[in-house]
Amino acid sequence: MKAVFALSAVAALAAKASAACWSESQGYPCCSSANAMVWFTDASGEWGVENNDWCGIPKAAASSSCWAASQGYPCCKSTSVVEYTDASGSWGIENGDWCGIVGGTTPSKPATGASTGASTGGAKGDVTVGSQYSHSGNPFKGHKFFVNPYYVDEVDKAIAQMSDSSLIKKAEKMKEYSNAIWLDNIENMNNWLERNLKDALAEQNAGSETVLTVFVVYDLPGRDCHALASNGELLANDGDMERYKTEYIDVIDEKLATYKSQPIVLVIEPDSLANLVTNLETTPACADSEKYYLDGHAYLIQKFGSYPHVAMYLDIGHAFWLGWDDNRQGAAKVYSKVIKSGSPGKVRGFASNVANYTPWEDPELSRGPDTEWNSCPDEKRYIEAMYKDFKSAGISSVYFIEDTSRNGVKNDRYHPGEWCNQMGSGIGARPQANPVSGMDYLDAFYWVKPYGESDGTSDTSAKRYDGYCGHRTAMKPAPEAGQWFQAFFEEGLKNANPPL
Ligand code: BGC
What is the CATH number of domain 144-494? Predict the structure, then answer.
């Protein structure tokens, strides 16, 4: 990457250019997105970095529409005073809240110290990072859980489409609960990681409680190797592995190092290691991804596992994936090897049922033909068994979290392994630390999958169409994975258990 002084020299020669792609006249391409991260600002505009070189961040797109709405903020109605600038644009304050300046001028330097005026919007300005926070014991215990503003915005948009007042009331409640923030590609990570850490820190600084934020690290090369619905941007090859390390993990690492005075939890790469336990022989894409999954875990555990304020949980699929005796034995080998490979980095434990539907308890089921001889036919029995197996395999820190966002009711699935947009599902137990007495190794029930976001498209012509999303118990028509799915959301509200 070019050094900043070299860039400044070139910038001094600035010629007039079109608003859209103003940097070309200075010998640099435009960045592919108006939301690119700002690395440097000079008189001609904001600069990002792509392909290891400077690029000019296009101004037109950011200034012509209400870009702040997608982040849960209104656009400014009267002010054009810039209080703060970030990757998405210039921010002002109106009615005690942040607003995006549409068509605003780009300031030559970001203003600072604007964090206190915003009542709900959180921290756009500088916030003070305090002394090092260290988790001790259960990382979920004793904190306020940060509520993701992006999710609140999704719910607000959903409410705008609803007319049933009792359902609207339930939807309003959803805005009070915390769920995880998915860093599901490099761009989203750049857009959301620091912003939410900053907002959580501002909330922590303003109150008397520590504020916990949960992120999902989810961008391994060859992601979702046994399915298609969540295939990611990075492919299983050495070049993309390098990008995973340098453009994704290293950036997360830098932010974790900065925001050291608040508790952070990371859920690591859903579905990846479970695929190494069961699908290496049957699925060539999983065999191709194996070394990247292993290398990626070793790399990130070494880095993130060294921070006392960060706790990590490796994903372990769910009861109807790794619950069978032989799968659990295979899992004990894979997970203990992976944890060792990340040494001296530390892992707190394991995340189960992420984005899945398996009930916490299902007393009607026991090992037999109905369960295809799975001795762990519900999540509670699965976690109890995994605890024993992982301990016997010599793993020293064995704690669990359970994703309860969608397992409130036992729905009529075609097969208990069905994972795509299941009909009749319901929101489950609310996020809470130490939810089950006598199970000290269960750190929390938490909502890892944001309820209402799709598992995968049902459009058979889409590149990421997976047959599971066309099965008879999958709700249709469904949008792409991660996109808002209104009908699914409304069903979950109705079926919530406990009720909302
Ligand atoms: C998708 C991600 C999304 C996540 C949360 C996954 O299935 O692949 O893009 O962020 O779900 O909704």
Answer: 3.20.20.40
* Tens-digit pLDDT profile for residues 31-46: 887 777 766 667 677 7
How far apart, in whole angstroms, are the C-alpha atoms of residue 400 and residue 403? 10
CA 274, CA 350: separation in Å to the nearest integer?
12
CA separation for the pair 181, 463 (Å, rounded): 25
Q: What 3-state DSSP class applies to 268?
A: strand
Report the relative pairing of strands 400-403 and 89-94 from DSSP bridges: unpaired
Which atom belonging to ligand 1 lies closest to the Cα atom of 229?
8
Lowest mean pLDDT across 238-252, 403-417, 465-479: 403-417
**Angstrom distance (rounded) from CA 65 to CA 68:** 9
Q: How confident is the model at residue 77 (pLDDT cuts 50, 70, 90)?
A: confident
Give pLDDT tens digits for 357-367. Answer: 999 999 999 99
CATH annotation of 68-100: 3.90.1220
CA of 422 to the centre of ligand 1 (A): 15
Strand partners, 314: 268, 350
Domain with CATH 3.90.1220.10 in the chain: 4-63
The residue type of 126 is D
Amino acid 159 reads: I
Residue ranges of the chain that CATH labels 3.20.20.40: 144-494
Residue 311 host element (H or E): strand 310-315
325 included as an active-site residue: no
Pick the catalytic residue from 224, 315, 403, 466: 224
Domain 4-63 has CATH 3.10.180.10: no
- The arithmetic mean of pLDDT across residues 216-236, rounded, is 97
